[in-house]
Amino acid sequence: MPSFAFTARDPKGRTQRGIQQAGSAIDLAAQLRQRGWLVLNVQAAGDSGESGILELIDPRNWLPIRSIDVEMTLTQIAVMLRSGLTLLAALNTAGEHADRYRLRKVLRNVMERIQEGSSFSDALAQHRCFNQLTVQLVKVGEQTGNLDVVIERASEGMERSRLLKSQVITALTYPVIVLVAALGVTGFMIVGVIPKLQVFLKVMGHKLPPSTQLLLDISAWTQVNGLTTVTVTAAIIGGLMASYSLPQGRLIMDRAMLRIPLLGRIFRVAATALFARGMCIMVQSGVTVLEALRTLARLGRNRYLTTVVDNARTRVFAGGGLSESLTETKDAFMPMLGRMTAVGEAAGTLDIVLDEVATFHETLLGTLIRQLSSLVEPAIIVFVGGIVGYVYITFFLALYAAAGPTGK
Length: 408
Hints:
Layout: E1 3-9, E2 15-21, H1 25-34, E3 38-44, H2 50-57, H3 67-82, H4 87-97, H5 101-115, H6 120-125, H7 132-144, H8 147-204, H9 210-245, H10 247-257, H11 263-284, H12 289-299, H13 303-317, H14 322-328, H15 335-347, H16 350-403
Antiparallel strand pairs: 1-2, 1-3
């Protein structure tokens, strides 16, 4: 039978430490509670020494906490709560099985705060890896007694949000990588290869073809004005980043992103799916519409959409309808959200309608991303092929010119 080291407080408040054999850490914790002790920590007897040092020096354990790590942890906690374990026992077990040191440290801190008298939701709110949606749902679960249900819904919400963001990022990553690679190859040909060919042709006394001369002129201009161009470009990017850090500048730029052809529609569809899914989960869990809107406004990354949600909350607080607030802005969420919300409010089935809206837009997002790929890939092939093809054609024309008669 394995041995476990424990730390606890007896009924008189004195700290008790020791090593005891038990079937598992949960069994030992249950035995200590039967004595009337407050269990602070239970771990395998050999975990605090050499293994603890190895944890600290292992670089993998200092990797940041990923969304998928939190999702798996929440799912495990929900399953254990449903099986009858106490919250502290579930947190302790989840911490023991967590892959990353930082997450184990966070869960230990959450346990300590709970033991000090803090609520579970307040303890989670102290750590950025748990978003506002999770905190709000846990708070409702504590009040209603359905903690396992809301934790599982929080995990599902995080998973859907992660998958949507991953789809958008994947759609944008491929074109950017291909474009950068093409520009890099073209730049190397213009700056590194063609000028050497020019020296060779001049020594041979051959006249350059017009296309090659044009490419050499571009190369010469790049060498003379390249530093200035890079400096001006960096200054423009820096100015845009500085403007984006200001509230008004970010509002303008976030709104402009939603108006970009095709990409703007993808951003709007993704935002609509996230909003509808978040509202659906919170309304199903018993969160009021006002609190749900407050939470979603904090979750949003697009400042313009956040402003729209804040305005909707103000209007609902004043007695207006949610659907009217969402329909007013034509360039924010997709029109279907406002129309279907009106149906849900009238029929009293807002959560069901929002679930359907979220599912529809999640499917639509996948379709739009496939359309983007089908349009972007041929365009990139034509663009990159045109640039690289022109460079190679001028290169071989120069070689043919070198083999021909001299221009003198």
